[in-house]
Design brief:
The protein is an alpha+beta fold. The chain is built from 2 helices and 3 strands, in the order H-E-E-E-H. The longest helix is centred in the middle third of the chain and has 16 residues.
Length: about 90
């Protein structure tokens, strides 16, 4: 993931906060991997039909009473997705 696209604007209402550097991004992603291995969360990658990464969807605390969903889409792709939706 290009951590620099994970901006303060994009994460305004979600977890985790934007990453100050690649080391912090790797730490968070490593924790996500560990949580997935223990069945605590699910991380899904969102790709275009051509295979380009445009975002992700997370389900946190999936074994708890109140799982939490998160959705992150690169800001450059939000407008493109909305235009595509309008055409449908």
């Amino acid at each position: 993931m290009n951590f620099q696209k994970f901006t303060d604007e994009i994460v305004k209402h979600q977890y985790p906060d934007s990453f100050s550097d690649i080391k912090k991004a790797n730490e968070v992603m490593s924790q996500f991997t560990e949580d997935m291995e223990h069945g605590k969360m699910l991380e899904l990658v969102i790709l275009t039909p051509e295979g380009e990464f445009i975002g992700s969807m997370e389900a946190f605390d999936i074994t708890g009473k109140t799982p939490e969903l998160g959705l992150w889409i690169k800001s450059a792709d939000v407008k493109r997705l909305l235009r595509t939706r309008e055409k449908l």
